[in-house]
Amino acid sequence: ALVAMAVLALGAVSLLTATEGHAARITALTERTAARWVADYSLTAARLGLDAASPVVMLGRSYPVNVTMAGTSDPDLQSISVAVSSATPATGNSSDATLYRLTGYSLLRIE
Q1: Residue 33, CA distances (Å) to 10, 38, 40, 64, 86 in order
Q2: What CA–CA distance (Å, rounded) separates 72 from 76?
Q3: What is the pTM (predicted TM-score) of this model?
Q4: Which residues contact 104 (CB under 8 A, 6 or more apart)?
Q5: Cα separation values, 10 from 2, 13, 22, 24, Å
Q6: Rounded distance, CA 64 to CA 80, Å?
Q7: Cα–Cα distance between 42 and 76 in angstroms, integer?
Q8: With the C-alpha atoms ordered 62, 68, 69, 72, is the resulting torsion angle positive or negative?
Q9: What is the spatial distance between Cα 42 and Cα 53, in angstroms, rounded to a whole number?
Q10: For the chain, how long is the longest CA-to-CA vector?
Q11: Can you list the pairs that 37-41 forms with residues at least 24 positions away whose Cβ atoms lie under 8 Å?
């Protein structure tokens, strides 16, 4: 009976570990998806000339956004780069906290 209980306990621990890993992966996927939506929103706001506030709140979380505009070799275009960071930054290197990067282009002059 003791051996059977040990086998069941081992199975329960294995199941709990697998469930924990799955929950962590789902949470990370949700955070990356929300970061992509935030990046799309921020890029569209920049293209329209709107002043998008940072941080952006999405799905109840606050995501810091960094929007950088730069010129291109074409005088009529500008490059817009958006970097969305984690709502809960990890300790250590700050570049690891970036969840999503997006680059787009916008016309400078409309005639």
Answers
A1: 35, 9, 11, 15, 12
A2: 8
A3: 0.73
A4: 43, 46, 47, 79, 80, 82
A5: 12, 5, 19, 21
A6: 16
A7: 21
A8: negative
A9: 9
A10: 84
A11: 38/63, 38/65, 38/84, 38/100, 39/65, 39/82, 39/83, 39/84, 39/100, 39/101, 39/102, 40/102
The angle formed by the CA atoms of residues 69, 109 and 48, to the nearest 5 degrees, is: 55
Task: Compute the distance between CA of residue 42 and CA of residue 107 in angstroms, rounded to an integer.
Answer: 16
> pLDDT tens track of the chain, all 111 residues?
889 999 999 999 999 999 988 888 888 899 999 999 999 999 999 999 888 777 899 988 999 999 999 999 998 899 999 999 987 755 555 556 899 999 999 988 665
Q: What is the DSSP string of 51-110?
A: ---SSEEETTEEE-EEEEEEE-SSTTEEEEEEEEE-SSPPSS-GGGGEEEEEEEEEES--
Q: What single-letter amino acid sits at 6?
A: A
